[in-house]
Sequence to fold (551 residues):
Amino acid sequence: MIKNKTGKFISNVYLIAMLIFMYLPIIYMCVFSFNSSRSLTRWTGFSTQWYERLFSDYTIGEAVYYTVLVALLATIFSTIIGTITAIGLSKSRYVIREIITNINDLPMMNPDIVTAIGMMLLFASLGLEKGFMTMLIAHITFCTPYVILNVMPKLRGLDPNIAEAAMDLGATPFQALIQVIVPQIAPGIMSGALIAFTMSIDDFVISYFVTGNGVKNISILVYSMSKRLNPTINALSTIMVSIVTIVLVLINVVPVINAKMKNKKISEEGNY
Amino acid sequence: MKTFRKLVYPYCVWLGIFVVVPMLMIMIYAFSQAGNDVTTLSFTFNNFAKFFDPVFINVFWKSIKIALITTILCILLGYPLAFIIANSNEKFRATLILLMTIPQWINMLIRTYSWIGILSEVGLLNNILSFLGLPTVSLLYTDFSVIIGMVYNFLPYMVLPIYTSLNKLDPNLINASYDLGANRVKTFQKVIFPLSIPGVMSGIIMVFLPAVSSFVIPKLLGGGQYMLIGSLIENQFITVGEWNFGSAISLIMAIIILISMYVLKKFDKDITEERGSKA
Fold:
């Protein structure tokens, strides 16, 4: 659509400007994580002291541990609950399905802060001590709807006769579930699990309201550290940014390279 | 197949305890007096009356205003971006989408925090300004910095749905429009834009919602005194300890958001249905 040269030029300039807007803060932060002074604005020389502090800081290690542990457990639980529920829903009567999917939408539609204080009030009135368990329960609760959302469409395209046939041939319902239905909807389960994991890793608001007893995830730690200038955050952020970038690039580039290698092989074989 | 119906039960219980009951708890707290036991619950509208105090109403309007400005800016910046990406060549497109999504994978607090260094009194922006011989400006802890932080955080939520709807667009429709004599502007006006409205709509929902309820961005980039409705709720729960008033504000916000979402979705549906019946 953008065919003439000026149009192309303007759109390229715009694209670059927007990319700068999106990446400047991140790059800026990474650069200043190597600054030798506390300043986030004046460059005083190269040093790795903030990284040294980061690795010697016990609270940061602990926060990373809790973040990953909660994310892994929440992903496992929400994926299992979500998948089972989605399968059940696909066989349920229309009215029940509608009611449950509508309630299931609530945590996704409600602002985080409303979900968060609801949970906080619940835990407070149940007399549950805020900490690791409450955080895990909250994470499972807000992750599961996304798993269901991702698995449901895969089930819709499924032929019900296949599971039926498996059971006619002597499979127990459990075997039919695990060996027949689950493999067919695996891509949906995978993408649901991935979304659940990232939602959990990224969460701040809900964790902030439901945790206690010194159990902090990375977001809460950054929040409490950010009240004053603190370059260790920049060091921590730089490491996280690097990991995310490497993983994403690998996920996206490796299949492309693989495909290219395969093509090459095929064309080489063709030459012989 | 009915055997599998039972699989829904565990999650029903879970939803009941951890989704429905918390919402009910917010309602109970919102309509009751502070310091009350569940057994001696007394019904009151006081918490809502308190909200209509000019101080709080101003916070409310300010939140709506900031969220609206953010949403509009996201449309203005995001639409051309989505359009350019959708029209770039295929190899490049995947890379551009990847570039759009990478920042989203980085912790939101970290992304927001990184703006402090740029916008502060002696930060990058002012360094550039003074290098160019221009007067420096104080941008941090103003409406401006909060809006920048929000646009920065939520822009991908606008770009991606618009991109998806532009990408789904049948190129034959555009070619047909050209064949029938429409120029590029006309084609955009009559064909491309109307067909991308569902994308814009979901973009609006995905930007406005978090923008109106955010409390992290105003806290980090607006400073300690800066109040939006999200930070007001947080304040009531964490600092002031007035859970009842905090619940009332949350309830008001939740209801407004759920209604506006319903309206937006309905509006979106009406448009698609209208188009369907025309065709």
